[in-house]
Design brief:
mainly alpha
Length: 83
Amino acid sequence: MASTSPHDRSRRDEDEDDPVDRMISRTGCAELHYAVQECMAEHQDWRACQNQVQTFKNCMMTFQNARREQLRKQQQTTESAPS
């Protein structure tokens, strides 16, 4: 059985079922994630991809901070709602 590369983006239809791809797509950082994967496939050395990694990391941190704030506001709303 032939193994396919995890960096092969030509298999888009099959990748749609991947829970990690779905999660990253919801963050708005998917294209940056794919840029990291493509760089890694091209260079085979993570050190050559530090710009892509940092950009993806910044995007994910922005998403996580916004999500944390959203959850905090929801929790405050729930706690202050009359019973």
